[in-house]
Design brief:
alpha/beta, 7 helices, 7-stranded parallel β-sheet
């Protein structure tokens, strides 16, 4: 199995990459922006798990990086996990913040699909990582939430267009996930408290997300197309 995970050096992306490596993937490529130390550490873990690691460094929306993705050959699994964004109220945002966030979180999936899908074979999967902010209004999350809503819509369109090729396209949406990314939120402590207040009583872990991704990329999910699988311990069910 040939796998590529964007944002694969840390957090959710790392957990997804390791899940496939431990599941027998032959090669696992991870995209990352600039943290070489984290990427090398994850590469060592992938190697120890039996997979050949490949590091793809740089902005996933750049032509250079997309060219490197094309050189990975036929992918069995493509996971767009990389995400960024400006966390502030709507009226304090600027157009450049919108462009940066939407390009990285949503447009990148379309760019990746254009590069990778032509070489993907029947039974392959594309999975996008979304968040509850795509459907619910979260504080200071207007740009990221809007980009994730666009991402989920794109997943539906790609699922229909790529189905005749035998390529599945779905998304996984996590609740409050226990990663270092939480440090970027000014209301981190409040988010953690809310995240733990789900019916299960604990935060979602990166491994929870990785398990959902692995399912969507398995033959058992062959008839699951264009769906967003919510992994939040029941958080979004509460009034």
């Amino acid at each position: 199995m040939n796998v590529f995970v964007t944002g694969g050096s840390r957090g959710i992306g790392r957990a997804i990459a390791l899940r496939f490596a431990r599941g027998g993937a032959r090669r696992v490529a991870i995209g990352y922006l600039r943290n070489d130390k984290a990427a090398e550490s994850t590469a060592d873990e992938l190697r120890s798990a039996g997979a050949e690691p490949v590091l793809v460094r740089g902005n996933i929306t750049s032509e250079r990086v997309l060219g490197e993705v094309g050189e990975l050959g036929s992918l069995d699994v493509l996971v767009h996990n990389a995400a960024t964004g400006v966390i502030r109220p709507a009226l304090e945002t600027e157009d450049k913040h919108w462009d940066w966030t939407l390009n990285a979180n949503a447009r990148a999936l379309l760019s990746l699909a254009r590069v990778a899908a032509p070489a993907m074979t029947a039974g392959s999967s594309i999975v996008a990582i979304s968040s509850l902010g795509a459907q619910r209004v979260l504080e200071n999350y207007v740009l990221v939430g809007t980009s994730k809503a666009a991402l989920e819509s794109l997943v539906r369109y790609l699922a229909v267009e790529l189905a005749p090729r035998g390529i599945r396209v779905n998304a996984v949406s996590g609740g409050v996930v226990e990663t270092g990314a939480l440090e970027h939120f000014p209301n981190r402590d409040e988010m953690v408290r809310a995240g733990r207040a789900n019916p299960v009583g604990r935060l979602v872990t990166p491994e929870d997300i990785a398990g959902a991704v692995a399912f969507l990329c398995s033959p058992d999910a062959d008839m699951v197309r264009g769906q967003t699988l919510i992994v939040d311990g029941g958080f979004s069910l509460l009034a």
